[in-house]
Design brief:
two-stranded antiparallel sheet
């Protein structure tokens, strides 16, 4: 799927303008350091623009624009550290699409039609998501219940429905669970308050099966791919804004009668930031295109793009802190918020070095 450059430009400008008005750093700081987990009003405004459904086919109420446009939107959200569950929602949408069942389609239409937010409660390791989430599902005369604890679920406090990986007598399956008195979410301390974490405890919770053991592996892979590409796009936005902050400061801050940007060490650091950001952006665009038109190299493209973008966000945010000198280390300066978002994202799905190992393994297997 080829995205028209003019359409992408218009989306970026419209979304960027909205976020500059509604999601400046002071607003983000107040929300992140307060009691609210996310910006519900901003979410509704994004719904009005169709942003949460960009990658969803029109037959399910989405925009049918594909991941190539979704990553452009997510980059703008990353630039503003938007406290929204878009990564989790898009990953859940990808899981439901891959499931291909009537029950999955029903939940997908609720997400696009009602703005329902969702989070994936699956097993996690340094290598990525796994089917072993420590949850057991029981079938009682056609009515499923799930029991167990998932210690860390990204965007759990924001979710109106959980997609839970649970073990059945026939193998792992995916279930939809709506939070209620038998489903308790407990906030977990997070390095990045703009992307809240929660522990989800389930006790004989009523559940609807959306994907059976026969397709569960494909469903989990589709969700992980989507999460990695959206996280990578978010990381590019974080890195781009951190770079802009550093360059602006280097241009205006003077030492010894000169702008510090004229010093070789600072100018070279900023130039390296630019190269890293543009390289990561190109890889993310290629990965998104690979998701829109899947092929044998799709997993490799996704893993390499995510690894590069996540590492770039951390290194550029660290560079932003250093260019700002002593001021960059203060709690009042926004640099630490970009670094925290970048560092937390590295461990949200899989660590960058493990992603590169996966890509290398896939390439060797194809030889």
């Amino acid at each position: 799927m080829t995205v028209d450059a003019e359409i992408e430009k218009e989306l970026r400008e419209a979304l960027g303008g909205l976020l500059r008005r509604r999601c400046d750093i002071e607003t983000v700081a107040a929300l992140a350091d307060g009691t609210e987990s996310w910006d519900r009003d901003l979410w509704q405004e994004l719904r009005g623009m169709g942003v949460p459904g960009l990658a969803i086919p029109e037959e399910y109420g989405g925009e049918g624009a594909g991941f190539s446009l979704a990553v452009a939107a997510q980059e703008e959200l990353g630039r503003r550290l938007a406290p929204l569950p878009t990564v989790s929602v898009v990953a859940a949408q990808a899981a439901l699409l891959a499931a291909g069942t009537d029950e999955a389609a029903r939940w997908l239409r609720r997400m696009t039609g009602e703005g329902l937010t969702a989070a994936l409660a699956v097993g996690r390791s340094a290598d990525g998501w796994s089917q072993d989430a420590g949850i057991r599902a029981e079938d009682g005369s056609g009515e499923w219940t799930v029991t167990g604890i998932v210690p860390v679920v990204a965007d759990a406090p924001c979710a109106a429905v959980f997609l839970v990986a649970a073990e059945t007598a026939a193998g792992p399956a995916l279930f939809a669970v709506e939070p209620q008195n038998r489903c308790v979410t407990t906030p977990v301390d997070a390095l990045d308050p703009t992307r809240p974490l929660g522990a989800v405890a389930l006790t004989d919770c009523p559940a609807r099966r959306v994907a059976g053991p026969d397709v569960f592996g494909d469903v989990l892979r589709a969700a992980e791919r989507a999460a990695l590409v959206l996280l990578a796009a978010d990381a590019v936005g974080v890195a781009a804004e951190a770079m802009d902050l550093a360059v602006e400061y280097a241009r205006t801050r003077h030492q010894f009668g000169r702008a510090i940007g004229t010093f070789q060490a600072v100018s070279h650091r900023c130039a390296n930031m630019l190269i890293a950001v543009e390289s990561a952006r190109a890889l993310v665009a290629a990965a998104a295109a690979a998701l829109d038109e899947p092929g044998p190299d799709t997993d490799t493209a996704v893993c390499l793009a995510a690894a590069e973008a996540l590492e770039t966000a951390v290194s550029v945010a660290q560079g932003c802190v250093q260019v700002h000198g002593g001021m960059g280390f203060t709690w009042e300066h926004p640099a630490h918020r970009y670094l925290r978002r970048a560092k937390a994202a590295e461990a949200l799905v899989a660590l960058p070095d493990r992603l590169r190992e996966r890509a290398a393994t896939d390439l060797l297997a194809a030889v």
